[in-house]
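Example for tutorial group B:
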């Protein structure tokens, strides 16, 4: 008879000794032409928040956890974007140069431009502090390169998202229609 209590007790011990962790994600479309993406991690112990086994997300800055009236709660902004060349050959692999003018009152952490190709392929370019070519983190010009594979179709690579993150983790997500509305390029044509 004592063995029938041993298995449930052992299972209960396993559950209590293992930290319970979970993630939640939401995207809020705000008035205007941008949205904010949030990821929340909930855990039962501090073990859930160690990052030794997780690869570092280049868009996730270390948080200062500043609170109060001086806390940074403003999303970063885009003042300009260029794509060169905007037309590429379908026969050869191509490199596209991207230049972004990014602004934030407390400083940019990183940005990523995500494109989708004619067959559903994905390509992206990451802008980080190492890619700052002029200005500073509050108002600077960043450059990055993106490689596109060769294809045999005359189609387009379209911007899906341009995600800009500041040092406090505030995000701004701009889609193709947002950039086109600002008069900025968001399409690379395959000819």
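The residue assignment follows.
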């Amino acid at each position: 008879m004592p063995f029938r209590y041993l298995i449930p007790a052992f299972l209960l011990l396993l559950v209590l000794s293992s930290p319970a962790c979970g993630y939640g994600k939401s995207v809020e479309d705000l008035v205007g032409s941008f949205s904010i993406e949030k990821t929340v991690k909930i855990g039962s112990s501090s073990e859930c928040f160690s990052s030794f086994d997780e690869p570092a997300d280049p868009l996730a800055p270390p948080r200062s956890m500043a609170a109060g009236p001086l806390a940074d709660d403003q999303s970063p902004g885009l003042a300009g974007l260029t794509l060169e060349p905007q037309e590429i050959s379908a026969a050869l692999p191509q490199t596209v140069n991207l230049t972004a003018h990014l602004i934030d009152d407390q400083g940019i952490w990183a940005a990523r431009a995500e494109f989708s190709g004619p067959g559903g392929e994905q390509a992206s370019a990451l802008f980080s502090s190492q890619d700052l070519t002029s200005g500073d983190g509050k108002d600077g010009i960043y450059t990055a390169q993106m490689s596109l594979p060769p294809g045999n179709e005359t189609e387009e690579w379209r911007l899906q998202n341009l995600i800009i993150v500041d040092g406090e983790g505030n995000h701004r997500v701009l889609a193709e229609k947002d950039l086109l509305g600002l008069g900025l390029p968001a399409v690379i044509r395959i000819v």
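The two ends are 78 Å apart (CA to CA). Compare this with the pattern of hydrophobic and polar residues in the output above.
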